[in-house]
Amino acid sequence: MQSQFEPLICTKRIDETADTTTFEFKKLDDGLFEYKAGQFLTFEVDVAGEVEYRAYSLSSTPSKPESVAVTIKRVAGGKVSNYLLDHLQAGIALPVMAPAGEFTIENNQVTPDILLMSAGSGITPCMSMARWLLDTEQKVNIHFIYSARSETDIIMFSELESLNQQHNNFQLSFILEETDNCEFIAGRLDVINFTQLVSDVAGKTIFTCGPTAYMQVVESLAESRGFDMDLFHKESFVPEVVEEPEQSDNGVKYQVVAPQYGKSFTINAGKTLLDALEEAGVPIIGACRSGVCGSCKCKVTGNVESSSSATLSAEQIQQGYVLSCSSKVTSDAVVEL
Ligand code: FES
């Protein structure tokens, strides 16, 4: 199996706030990066002998292709994020998958009036979009609305302020839970401050990223204002905690063969193909486990039901490729990586 990972070397750490750091990377051969603003990278990280995979949105702009950057915030129980914050230094290389993700300006319906709405570390893809739109002098108006706990928690504060001063088409608003500075809006995003900030939603496009609860608020505020939801785009790789009822497989089993690895096993209907392949010892990578990163792609001959094919091209789907984390076989099948 050809490796989907390429080593990138960390070249710089920039502390953004007390708990958030930007890490810059370059290729070992100094090659250029190609990606779209809003995409993410999936890192392979060895944490105390256990290999973990995590996706982080790029905060850098594709218009400066010599390097890429991700911005990582410390979170309670965040095994990989906290490990990287504590251990990743300039000079250390990590295996990283090619940039991926559909949360981009190019892949979505967009108008020239763009609202970039983010909270906490969700600022990263919005920052990448803002940097790219301004750097390449796109003919758009950007309103950047960022929510944080306090002024000291604003990530990339000074850069945002200078973008605001330098560009007439960039408007900046902060909503802070704890503030007595009248330059900022105090509290959390709600119907009152949203209406105050965006008096007319007609003709605008929203890109939003942040904690799931925050994005739900943005979505319901947009809906309540009669927003054209074709122009509403939210980052979806943040795994959502959904309580799914246990699925009964009624005892149905199928036979799956992975000839490249000499594996043949039965799979209970209702189990994802990724889980079954991992249990059988097939070396497949499930980085996001939510159908957005593409790392678990495999080719299936047989019948499959898939809930996501987000990163697959029409040609790959035609050839039988599926995302195994989002697929269940519904017949005996042969799997190739
Ligand atoms: S693990 Fe990311 S798409 Fe399946």
* CATH architecture classification name of the largest domain: 3-Layer(aba) Sandwich
- Low-confidence parts, pLDDT < 50 over ≥5 residues? 239-246
Largest sheet: 6 strands, parallel
Helix tally?
Answer: 7
Q: What's the helix-strand series? A: EEEEEHEEHEHEEHEHEEEHEEHEEE
Terminal-residue CA separation:
7 Å
Categorize the overall geometry: globular
How many structurally independent domains?
3
Bound molecules: FE2/S2 (inorganic) cluster
Q: What is the overall pLDDT average?
A: 91
Brief digest:
The protein has helices at residues 79-87, 123-135, 157-166, 191-197, 212-224, 273-279, 314-319; strands at residues 5-17, 20-27, 40-47, 50-57, 68-73, 93-97, 113-119, 141-150, 170-178, 185-186, 204-209, 232-234, 253-258, 263-268, 297-301, 304-306, 321-323, 327-329, 333-336. It has 337 residues and is α/β, with parallel strands linked by helices.
Can you characterise this structure?
The protein has 337 residues and is of the alpha/beta class. The protein has 3 domains: 5-97, Elongation Factor Tu (Ef-tu), domain 3 (Beta Barrel), CATH 2.40.30; 113-234, Rossmann fold; 253-336, Ubiquitin-like (UB roll) (Roll). It is 19% helix and 34% strand. It is built from 7 helices and 19 strands. The protein has a 6-stranded parallel sheet, sandwiched between helices. A 5-stranded mixed sheet has the order 14-13-19-15-17. It has a 4-stranded antiparallel sheet with strand order 5-2-1-6. The longest helix is centred in the middle third of the chain and has 13 residues, at 123-135. The termini are close together. The chain binds FE2/S2 (inorganic) cluster.
